[in-house]
Amino acid sequence: MPKLEELIASGDISAAIAELMNGRITPAPDAAENAAQYDPKKHDINDPQKRPDKIVITDKDSSEYGEVKNLNVNAELTTEQGFRIEKVARIALAIQKLIVKRAVAFTFGHPVGYNATPESDEEKALLAAINRVFHDVKERTINRKVARSLYSTTEVAEYWYPVETDKPHNLYGFPKSIKFRVALFSPAYGDKLYPYFDDAHDLIAFSRQFTKKGADMITRTYFETFTKDAHYLWKSEGLDGSEKRNWELVENYPKLLTVGKIPVIYASQPEVEWADVQNLIDRLEKLLSNFADTNDYHASPKIFVQGKILGFARKGEAGGIIEGEEGAKAQYLSWQDAPESVKLEIDTLLRMIYTITQTPDISFDTVKGIGAVSGVALQLLFMDAHLKVQDKTEIFADYLQRRVNLLKAYFGVANLSWADAADSLLVEPEITPYIIEDEQGKINTLQNANGGKAVISHKTSIRRLGWADDVDAELEEIRADEDRENTYTEGEPTL
Fold first, then answer.
1. Which of 91, 169, 323, 349 is the 20 to 30 A CA-CA neighbour of 362?
2. Is the pLDDT of residue 287 over 70?
């Protein structure tokens, strides 16, 4: 492609934007479809066109006769008949959200570890500064938001940038008047993301399109582009900024970048997390809705009458008698066929949904009969989820590594004395899949391996328990209690 600078210099901004939109190596996600599947209110089961209400025929003289809307075109209407709309059951399940929530929890339920062995003082100070940035931006929360966006929309990006502070500070280990911040870009927030890759699949530009209503109440479309050298921002009035004449450069742009890297980190996956089971979820919702309709019709017993009934028992009357003419018959209509096949299909669908998406079924009904389980049993219970996290590590290992590398580059520019440390310091992110810790089982295993001896100190045990604010003071109290128990006073015997 022609260089972005050349396209901009030519004045053909529309051509530049069109080129930036065509640099993907994967298809753009269907944001509207993904959002509709993710939101139970927008499921097909709630669409009157895909699941129409029932039309019930009534006598024209009946009190139920009235205007009918959205009639079934296949219904045969006569002048002697009236119609009413019978609402059907619509049961939508938030299974897509459940799949995403479980996947996020198992991926980033534990904090990300950053393995590093700094050697020089500069490397140690740089590592401390990076950790301080992660603390300030709540990196653990950012990770969960990134995973949630990736799993539910197939792509996400984060933009790291410095902001000026009111006064200098020493939070990063050196005097500076900036702090580092991060912003997330996602289709879930209304963003359209346009990564631009070269033939080697290296990201050489990143763009996003979004709309915003200004103080003048005019809605404008913005197109924002980042390269390693500059930050561009164009705008056009209205929701559609595709026309060539509409685009104009926003004031004070482009902004030069000195970090030497694109300040945006991007990640994508081919499909949303529930893509392989979407049809199963649709089928499950249809089955449950039909089952609910059947219960509505047949849950309460109905009386079938043959002949003329002269008198009927009153509501709540004890020993009431139904009186009829000779030959009259009355009997209850009951639902004889047990819905075993429906229950079997529902159970099968749920099991297949969990299995295919590698989502552990950890509902109360499932685990209530397990009781106390060992660490091995927990590992087996969560094995599928952990295998899934290993697959996701292919995405997040590179993603988190690029995040660290970008911050190293920022600090190398902000503090020139760290320039060499920024190149030499090696930091490797490590993702630990979430699991419930079997503390007692772990302690027993370590003690057995240690010949039954203690494996940690008394002080460490107090600190790990977390019940005491002052570990040293608590340890002294314990020792004082032990001393009192081990002392005695010799005196005269008493009866």
1. 91
2. yes
